[in-house]
Amino acid sequence: MKGIEFLNSLLLLLGSHQVLQQAFQGQEVSTRLAQFPIVEASASPGSMADNIVASCFAGAVTQAGADITNYVTSKVSSSQSMEKNYENLTNQVAKLQALRYDFEREVKKHQMKKTTTSSYHVWLRSVNKTLDDAKGLEDRYEEDRKLSSRYIHLKRRSNYSGKLEKMCEEIQKLVEEGKVLGDILVDKPIEPVLKVNAPEIKAFPSLQRPLEQVLEMLRNDKLKGIGIWGPLGVGKTTIMKNLNNHEQVAKMFDIVIWANVNDERSEEKLQEDISWWLKLKVEDILYPEDVARTIFEELKDKKYLLLLDEVMDSIELEDIGIPDNKNGSKVVFTTEFRHVCSSMADRLIEVRKLSPNEAWMMFQQMVSEVIDLPDIEPIARLVAKECARLPLLIKTIAGAFKSKDSVSEWRKGFKDLQKWPEIEIPGLTELHSFLKFCYDQLKDDQKRKCFLYGALYPAESKIYTDYLLECWAAEGLVGGTKERRFQDARDEGYDTLKHLTNVSLLEKGERMIYVSMNNSIRQVALYISSQDPDCKFFTGMSEDSPDCLEENDWQQSKRIAMIDKKLQDLPNSPNCSMLLSLLLQRNYTLTEIPQSFFEKMKTLLVLDLYGTGIESLPSSLAKLKCLKGLYLNNCIHLTVLPTEVGELHCLEVLDIRGCRICFIPFYIQKLVNLRCLRVSYYKSSNPNGCQDMDIDVIPLLAKLEELTIDVHSYDHWCKEVVDIMRQVATLKNLTTLTICFPKSEVLKTFMQHSLSWKDRKQLTSFRFYVGCQNQKRPQILEYFKYKIDRYLGYCQGNCSDNSIICDLLPETDALELIEHKDITSLVDFVNVSSFNRIRGCLIERCNKMTTIADGNKLEGGIILPKLEQLHLANLQSLQTVFWGTFSTESLSKLHTLVVSSCPMLRKLFSSGTIQQISKLQKLVIQSCIEMEELIMKTDTAGQVPTALPNLEILILIEMPKLRCLSADNSLAWPSLKELQVYKCPQLKSLPFFKDNTANLKSIEAEKIWWEALQWPQNDVKQQLQSICNLR
């Protein structure tokens, strides 16, 4: 047996079969060994081994002894240097990593304004590749060290030693190159293109063809101006939006600027839009000529594309500051008037109506599934034909019909559509007649008036929903009876608003927080109101004409809106015996209202002075006996609310936020019908400045349903909040409350004594800020597509507060947890069932938190079953987001996860968790410097794994150690549409094949990173190249 062991050791030492082959100069080992004497099978094992050894040595020494001796000697010498070379490599790697870290720290310090040079990118790419190779050698060395109890191949050690020595030389060279790179930072350029929401038009040649014509003209350096001309509603703006977003445009120009121009916008407004796009600070520049020079200086050396939408008249571009560069810069504009093209365009592109087939296809898309109901398609084709093949008409008419789900409704709607006569407006007759039809389809006269009310506001401007509903309620357009609850009126208003947006007469904004009215639809609404004495409007002058209204305008109008008109003066006592609403908001230059101004406005219901420069209110305010809505918010120079306010006994809404008024004056107690009060808690430095304040009036406002208190003087608030909250707790009709609790104890007292809080079904909307000095709009609410009514902001808490917060959480939809001092995870924070209602959660600067939830500590319990949005930021100790195993219902609705600036985070979640978040649609990871691997390998029992089957958006930014997206390269990405990767230098490959990214539409990344990627299949890169946006 000793002979056999010795033989095995010898073979190991000489590298076994391969070493013998080299020693025998390439001849087969079996051939050479065959020449050795064969031991008889009958021999004992021991003697057999001895004979084999003797034969091996005899044959080898006789025929190749010298070769083996030389071969082994060279390998031994090289092998002996391996430890020394490894130590040298470790030192050199440390030097190179330190140099790279110094550069990265400098880059991060200036990342907002600076970017890196190309030479630095080339060097960094070489550094990252070399360090990866060095890491591979180090790993192999460590593997060999684990084998130290056994014989290590002589050849293997020798080869390692040579590679280590060569690697040291490469690293030393990179260190020297890095030291002579010089300044690696240069100014960051302005973002060339800002994408806008644009409908897909590739399926509609009537829209796609003009787009391609414009693209062709953009390549002609002899052309400067290009006009897109056609009737209202034909799709000009849609073409422009697609032009703005087109990938070829981004390659042709240094910058693309978008500006909307219509009949109510001045050249100064246009300058503001362009300056914003160029990131120019012009707020302090007084004169348009100076703004023009600033714009000129920014653009004079750039190849720009200026896109102007809805141009109503000729524009002198030089007066705005647009230089006439001779470098291929272009101006493209849309207009309904051909004379504009003759003065501004070198070439004209006419946009014609859709073809009948295109119009039908678009109509089908707009009405969606309704068209598949029995017997509806034949009538639907007739309705589509009546849309005159205009995209805007199709959108509007289809919006009116898609809510009809029976043949009889479609038949009746079609007959009504055919009845209405044309509105006599030259050039717009067809469009306006169909919009008039949609207006009449509202049937309900109150809904029509609600729609027309929206025309009081500038086209495309944001009309905030809560405010609009309050105006409707004040005029009696929603809410019905006098004694109705304010919330009932608001609910009815939401129903009307939803209907108006569904039929596209109003455009829905984010989460229905605001709506807007398209310019063409607003024209129709203003025309309709001009024909109806009961809806007589005056919406102000053009911006270039700041003169006041004529006497007849005041006398005949039921509603007057002069918003953003730079008003300076108002008439002394206009005769307004019919006036219902007066909207003067955002006239910052209006500093004084004549004392008798309101004398003849006894029917006035809504008065909006938001954002004016007024310093006081006139005594004639007391004449407004019918007034229901008074808006003085952001009148920053208004310091006193006159006692005459107490005479407004019908007042239901009072908004004095952002004024310098000291909280609630005592005479507010007379407003016995007040339903909604919004105030700021403000304490003047003047000790005599708040003598009118009296918190004891709060309980006297018995009908109050909505209360908002914005805290501006936080230190004073902390001293008085207990007394104030004691008064607020007596209000028994509250449905909406926004307020700040400096400490959790104050919250506890309120919850114990509040009559409204005890009836949980009544207080349906709240924003509670516990321990938060800043009452800015919560970030978490911005991420939802629908409105969230129950929000809790909890700041700087500790474990002793947890039980109080635990009582509030079951009623909360959105939570922001900021700077908690103690918690390590939500599981430790409170009873996990308290989170069952939470839909959105933001956690920030909770520096002891190591994980959001550990399923192993839940013992089968359910956590966050309704959570949709999770945002994590600046958690210094976070090591993983979710860990362990969770119940089926836990995290089952999570669709968005955003993690940023968590320096200790190495793993997002364990392998058992990833199957739990299968609904995840958007994943964003940014500035997590220790993250190495995004998705761990999962056990899929031989099936093609789809760990995140619904993931559509993946964004990875600034993760220097990220090596791979997934440890399992066979992972399928069936829903992935968008990938963004920036500043992830060690991410050398993507786990993409021909078949696992079928829906991928967009890749955004750095060009140098993309070109350095390694691909499993050569044709995959070519396949994805066409959807890349590289910088």
From TrEMBL:
<keyword id="KW-0732">Signal</keyword>
<keyword id="KW-0067">ATP-binding</keyword>
<dbReference type="Pfam" id="PF13855">
    <property type="entry name" value="LRR_8"/>
</dbReference>
<dbReference type="Pfam" id="PF23598">
    <property type="entry name" value="LRR_14"/>
</dbReference>
<protein>
    <recommendedName>
        <fullName>AAA+ ATPase domain-containing protein</fullName>
    </recommendedName>
</protein>
<dbReference type="InterPro" id="IPR055414">
    <property type="entry name" value="LRR_R13L4/SHOC2-like"/>
</dbReference>
<dbReference type="InterPro" id="IPR057135">
    <property type="entry name" value="At4g27190-like_LRR"/>
</dbReference>
<keyword id="KW-0677">Repeat</keyword>
<dbReference type="InterPro" id="IPR032675">
    <property type="entry name" value="LRR_dom_sf"/>
</dbReference>
<dbReference type="InterPro" id="IPR003593">
    <property type="entry name" value="AAA+_ATPase"/>
</dbReference>
<comment type="similarity">
    <text>Belongs to the disease resistance NB-LRR family.</text>
</comment>
<dbReference type="InterPro" id="IPR001611">
    <property type="entry name" value="Leu-rich_rpt"/>
</dbReference>
<keyword id="KW-0611">Plant defense</keyword>
<dbReference type="Pfam" id="PF00931">
    <property type="entry name" value="NB-ARC"/>
</dbReference>
<feature type="coiled-coil region">
    <location>
        <begin position="79"/>
        <end position="106"/>
    </location>
</feature>
<dbReference type="InterPro" id="IPR027417">
    <property type="entry name" value="P-loop_NTPase"/>
</dbReference>
<dbReference type="InterPro" id="IPR042197">
    <property type="entry name" value="Apaf_helical"/>
</dbReference>
<dbReference type="InterPro" id="IPR002182">
    <property type="entry name" value="NB-ARC"/>
</dbReference>
<dbReference type="InterPro" id="IPR050905">
    <property type="entry name" value="Plant_NBS-LRR"/>
</dbReference>
<feature type="domain" description="AAA+ ATPase">
    <location>
        <begin position="222"/>
        <end position="355"/>
    </location>
</feature>
<dbReference type="Pfam" id="PF23247">
    <property type="entry name" value="LRR_RPS2"/>
</dbReference>
<keyword id="KW-0175">Coiled coil</keyword>
<keyword id="KW-0547">Nucleotide-binding</keyword>
<feature type="signal peptide">
    <location>
        <begin position="1"/>
        <end position="21"/>
    </location>
</feature>
